[in-house]
Amino acid sequence: MAAETQVLLNNEKKYIAKFFSDATESDVKKIDVSTLTWAKHTLTLSAASTEKFKIGEVITTGGAETFIVTDFTAGATTVTVVGWDNTNKKATAIDTGMSNSDAIVGAVSGTHTETVANSGAFTELDYNLLVTKIMWITNGLTVDVQWDGSTAETTIAELSGNGSWSMPGNEWPGIGVNATGDSGGVLGDIQFTTTGHASGDSYTVIMECKKQAAGYDVPQYEQNARLGFPVDFKLGNYP
Fold first, then answer.
1. What's the CA gap between 34 and 15, in Å, rounded?
2. CA-CA distance, 89 to 105, in Å (whole number)?
3. Which of 25, 48, 221, 235 minimizes the number of CB atoms within 10 Å of its CB?
4. Which of left, alpha, beta for 118 (phi over 0: left; psi -120 to 50: alpha)?
5. Cβ atoms within 10 A of the Cβ of 216, count?
6. 43 forms bridges with which residues in the sheet?
């Protein structure tokens, strides 16, 4: 028996993946919304910033973890970042390997007086997806696709047989999260539960999700004007 996830697209606007399994599943997490690319995270500084971060610059913590700055206010005690693969120049899942007192070095702003203060425990943000398309084939079982929530989980769709549906337009923008409770940062994650599974049964589900700007975003380059940096919309910081 096997369960597989193949990511087909993961950029600043959409996440598309194919899910296959021939195993019995119960509340198996398929999409962790906080790990998707361009998921914003709040990095806490050891004190109010005396140097400025440039929006869109690469910052490194402890000489190892790299991020892209997506938002910053001069004198703030936090900076908003997304995960960044500096070797391949693309957004990636956030790296939580940093430790308290790790040095922070900006590719533009240089070494900062303030250091890391939250030791990999990024402040939780609201990560919100809309489910916009689903295609499925089920063989002998039913798949309950659910929004996760620590208080109450809710069903997005219950899939049997085969079929597809799409919500691409303004009249039907997509299915938003209506689960409740975010203990452990699970609200809005997507999980699958199967019923009626027997030997040889399986499913294949392809799902498209739209990322909402509150939790996912590219750098707000225009804000560099008030920080004293040129607004250059640097290429390479975009997928």
1. 12
2. 17
3. 235
4. alpha
5. 26
6. 79
DSSP 225: H
CATH number of the structural domain 3-34+126-211: 2.60.120
* pTM (global) more than 0.85: yes
Using alpha carbons, list the distances in angstroms from residue 75 to 2, 78, 187, 188.
Answer: 51, 9, 31, 32
pLDDT values of the chain reduced to their tens digit, one per residue, 239 residues: 689 999 999 999 999 999 999 999 999 999 999 999 999 999 999 999 999 999 999 999 999 999 999 999 999 999 999 999 999 999 999 999 999 999 999 999 999 999 999 887 888 788 999 999 999 999 999 999 999 999 999 999 999 999 999 986 667 889 999 999 999 889 999 999 999 999 999 999 999 999 998 899 889 898 899 999 988 876 444 43
Interstrand relation of 41-44 and 78-85 (parallel, antiparallel or unpaired): antiparallel
- CB–CB of 139/201 below 8 Å? yes
Percent helix, strand, coil in the chain, to 5, is: 5, 45, 55
Joined tokens for residue 86? 């500096």
